[in-house]
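Supplementary Note 2. Why include the ligand at all?

Several targets in our set were suspected to adopt different conformations when bound, so apo predictions alone were not considered sufficient. For every target with a known small-molecule partner we therefore ran a joint prediction. The input for adenosine-5'-triphosphate is given below.
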Amino acid sequence: MTPRFAEVIMPLPIEGTFTYSVPEELSSIVKIGMRVVVTFGTHRLYTGIIQYLHLIPPDTKNVKPIFSLLDEEAILIRPQLDFWEWMATYYMASLGDVYVAALPSGLRLENETLIRRNPEVDKTLSFSSRESRIWNAISEDRACSIQELIKRTESKHAVVWIKSLMDKKAVIVSQTITDTYKPRTISMVKAAFNKDNEQEVQTIFERLKRAEKQLSLLITYLDLSQLLSKQETKPVSKQTLLEKSGASVAVLNGLVDKKILQLYDQPVSRLTHEITTPLQEAASLNLFQTKAYQSLLDEWKTKQTVLLHGVTSSGKTEIYIHAIQKVIALGRQVLYLVPEIALTTQLTHRLARVFGSKLGIYHSKFNDNERIEVWKNLLHREGLQIILGARSSIFLPFHDLGLVIIDEEHETSYKQQDSAPRYHARDAAIMLAHLHSAKVLLGTATPSIETYQNALSGKYGFVELKQRYEGITLPRVASVDLKEAFRKKQTAGHFSDTLIEAISGALSRREQVILFHNRRGYAPYVECPQCAYVPKCKYCDVSLTYHKQQHKLICHYCGFSQPLPDRCPSCGNNSLKIKGLGTEKIEDEVSQFFPNAKISRLDLDVANTRKGFERIITAFEQHETDILIGTQMVAKGLDFANVSLVGVLNADVLFHYPDFRAHERAFQLLSQVSGRSGRKGKQGNVLIQTMDPNHAVLPQVIAHDYISMFRTQMKERYEFCYPPYYRLIVINLRHKDENTVHHASERLAKQLRKLFSDRVLGPEIPPIGRLHSWYMRTLLLKIESNRSSNAAKKMLKETIAELQAEAPFQSVQINFDVDPM
Ligand SMILES: Nc1ncnc2c1ncn2[C@@H]1O[C@H](COP(=O)(O)OP(=O)(O)OP(=O)(O)O)[C@@H](O)[C@H]1O
Ligand SMILES: [Zn+2]
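The joint prediction is reproduced in token form.
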């Protein structure tokens, strides 16, 4: 079939795909999954993606043609496009939203499409004056972006004339992967003389007689390269040569100038993580692990998805490794998801030891080039078989997934919160596995309520592992009553004497300590002691957080920052008081109490780069630091051998979270952070400071009693109509004018109640009622789990379309959060 039309996905938050005609000259090469340049709206150019090709003319008369193809081959494959469609439908987002979330930005340079002169342009062509203006604006030797051309010609309609130049084949539109993607190279050294010509070699040595340093460098080179021996010549990098010879760059350049040595660039892959040691066998499993592994394989015979509920440090990772080996031996692929980038550091080492270059890493702290390299490798099946990554790796071009591992499946950071599609990577990955007929392994010590329920009901397979690997008892957990400690004056700063003593004890035995507090910055807010004024963000309804190092007040929602004012802006009082507690302040206090201890901090502020994480984690691993202070980043999955004490500074922050999951999350977080203690050698200790020692979750954490937490929670969820009994959909409305959003939300609630009656809650002003200068309202829709949510979603969309057909509400922005966390 010669396709005549293409359905194109645009990188825009608009429903559906758009039909373009396929020009004749492209019809034989165009393929599904290729990127194309198309115009949309008033002459803007975009990079679209072909979802499918067909012969059916659309209803509209003027179908626009595809301008050009950006790829010689598809960059997306069928399972991905199916996955996109599922995601858009389920999470009530547009295909364009999914497209934007899925592709590394290097592959979607909308409006940065590059134009260059065609070097083979027909010299006899004549241009109109407008075309000439564009032509002249394009640099002779360099491609330039459409934005640049619009600026240079000062013409908004530049695109039209670019198009006519394209028709005349005077310019080329390009944006292939290789255009934006630059391979990494290293500088290599080779001989510039003929090694087989003895005479020539002789002369060179003569010439260098008085250039001692150059001679010695040349000899080092000959040695490293084995050039004059009978063996095969080895490649020598510039860096190695300089290191081994101790010579300076100037000496090397001298030899290059004399045309004795020569430099050249060699492309190298960014994917090879340094594998210094030879590959090792996977660790053999102990008795309990072997049993668990066997039941895992058994469960997979009948179930797609299996929950592995194994206590902290039971060796779940080792079981994953065995499962991975089995799958890759069949030639299939594995996706290993972790909730937090911090976790990839340790895991990369553990996995690379066994899997070497079959392992690829993928997450948002990798730059675009590195991500594109992983993408291409998978697309062309160039050798990667296992991807370890954060949530965005579900979008990679897998050809044949055999297994998806979701580590710490309970983690809420699997949920994409900020922008559409608001997907849950665990749930989406289960769907992805389904499309590939792959098995799924959900691993955790503290399952989410939903997952545990699915395991109990038989929807998922279920495997338990109750012993720590070395048979060490789970840590002793105790709570410390802060209120009482303050009353009895048994505190220093934010530390109870009990915690301080425990820390000194651990340090004196040369053991390490983790201190956990779920708030970064120095102090959550500052307040005027005279008038109680609290500085707030200009754009959001939140108080600003004080960061001491930068001496600034920062909004954790939009990043707005301002210097700490000298006096109260409201009453003029000449000091503002710092209130509450953040990780930075804890670090301050700890270093006062333990001046000899080496302390480091792991939170978003210090660890916002890949190297940042690695440095801090490795230093702690190697016991270069004694005390690690951190937010929830330290709570999950990290494996340190020498930690004997975990201190929780203030558990109340977790208890008073305004959310139906607060209790579940507090249990998970406290159990997880406790699990970092006493993993090797002997039983560890955990101290949890709280103002509320009678909180119901504490006895459950202390007794490591997951089941009782699960039971109390299920009862509450049932009573108050929450998941897993009900599915939730949050409808967010926002507008720059508060009145408009208020009326729109009231109106929508009324319409929806006609359809869903009391399953609709709200409208409400969310806890942060204004964000980035937008006023917000939310509605909540609860649907019984045993009912079709598809039908409900459809009705919901129709109702909203009706609302937005009314003039005053057209500009209200509405989005959805399906299964909010
Ligand atoms: N079979 C084994 N052979 C050798 N070492 C093992 C084995 N099983 C576990 N270990 C070691 O025990 C420690 C804990 O194992 P692992 O990190 O896999 O536990 P986990 O269950 O994933 O813990 P968490 O839930 O806390 O992340 C690790 O240092 C691991 O190397
Ligand atoms: Zn803000």
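The first helix runs from residue 24 to 27. Residues 176-180 have pLDDT under 50 and may be disordered. Comparable summaries for the other entries are listed in the accompanying table.
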